[in-house]
Amino acid sequence: MRxxxxxxxxxxxxxxxxxxxxxxTYGPNSIRFLEGLIPMDVCPLPYGRKLWDGTDxxxxxxxxxxxxxxxxxxxxxxxxxxFDPSVxxxxxxxxxTRVALTVFAVGRYLDAYLLPxxxxxxxxxxxxxxxxxxxxxxYPEKIPSLKLGQGRTLEVIQVARENRWQDVSxxxxxTITDAIDGHIHHQCEYVFCxxxxxxxxxxxxxEALGDSVALLHSFYxxxxxxxxxxxxNPKSEAYMDKGDFYYHAAVFGGxxxxxxxxxxxxxxxxxxDKENEVEALWHDESHLNKxxxxxxxxxVLSPEYCWSMFIGHRNDIxxxxxxxxxxxxxxxxx
Length: 334
Ligand code: UDP
Ligand code: MN
Hints:
The chain is α/β, with parallel strands linked by helices. It has helices at about 5-25, 30-35, 85-95, 110-125, 165-185, 255-275, 285-295, 330; strands at about 50, 60, 75-80, 100-105, 130-135, 155-160, 190-195, 200, 210-215, 245-255, 300, 320-325. The strands form three sheets. It has an eight-stranded mixed β-sheet. A two-stranded antiparallel ribbon has the order 1-2. A two-stranded antiparallel sheet has the order 8-12. The longest helix has 23 residues, at about 5-25. It is globular. The protein binds uridine-5'-diphosphate (UDP) and manganese (II) ion (MN). Uridine-5'-diphosphate (UDP) binds near residues 106, 169 and 197. Uridine-5'-diphosphate binds next to helix 5.
C-alpha cells in the first residue's frame, strides 16, 4: 500500500494541474467553474486584452477577477473598476448622445415613489448628457414640478389605468413601443426603461449605454441556474427550459430600435398568452427573459446597477448605483 502522504500529494498535484489548465485557458472566469462546479460560461475574448466598447471607451474585463465580466457570446458585464467614467462621458458629450428614460407611476405608485426617483435620477443618471424623462401616469395633474439640469426635460404622458397591477406592469411593453414610435425615436438615440420603486444612489452613467442592455437580477446572479424563476409552463409564450442568466425587468435599455423590438415582442407574447388564458409566472419579466435568451443583449449590467439592501452586504458589490425602494405591496397594489 502507498503511504497516505504520497496519495495526498498526488491528489494535490492533479488538482493544481487542472486548476493551472483552467486558468490558462479561461482566465479569471474559471473561478466560477470551481465555485460549486457551476457549468461555466466561457468568455470567448482573448485573455488580458481590453475591449473597445463600440465607439464609447475601453472596458477592462480583467480588472475584476472576482466576478464574471463577460458572457459566452462576448458581451461585457459591467462592474465597478472596469471602466474610466471620464473617458465614457467625454466621448458621449462630444457626440451629444441623447437618452430617454421611461418610467410609469400609475395609481398609488405616483405618490409613493416618483419624486425621489426623479430627484435622484437628476443627481446620478447620465449626468452631463441631454436626458428626456417620459413619465407615464393616469394622473398627470399630480406630477410634481421639478427643476431639471441643463438640457434635461420631462414629458408627461397620460395612460389608462389597468384594473390589475399585473396588467399595469405588463402593458408597459405596449406603451413604451407606442412612445418610441410617436416621440422618442425623433428625440433620442438610447432609451432606458425603469421601474419607479427604486432610487439612484451612485453614478448610473454613459458606460451603461449599448445596443441592447440587460440587468442581472441581484437575487439570482450568484446562484446556480436551477434557481432561476423562468416560466416553466409550456402553454405560455414565455416558457423556457434553459437560459443564460436571470434578468431583472426593473431596468432594460439600448438603442431605441432594439428596445422597440424587445417591447413589441414581449407585448405580442403577453397578448398571445391572454388569448390562451395563461399568464407567465413573473409577467413582463418572464417575457423579457425569454426574449433576451433568444436575442442576446450586447451589454449586461452587474447587480451594482440595481441592488437590494434586503440582500445586505456582498464583497463583490463595490458600489450601489440604484437601490430597490421599500416594497409596499399591500398598500399600493389593487
Ligand atoms: N406600476 C405602477 N402602478 C401599479 C403597478 C405597477 O405604476 O399599480 C409600475 C411601476 O413603475 C412599478 C412597475 O410598474 O415600479 C412594476 O411593478 P412593481 O414595481 O410593483 O413590480 P416588482 O418590482 O415588484 O416586480
Ligand atoms: Mn419594481
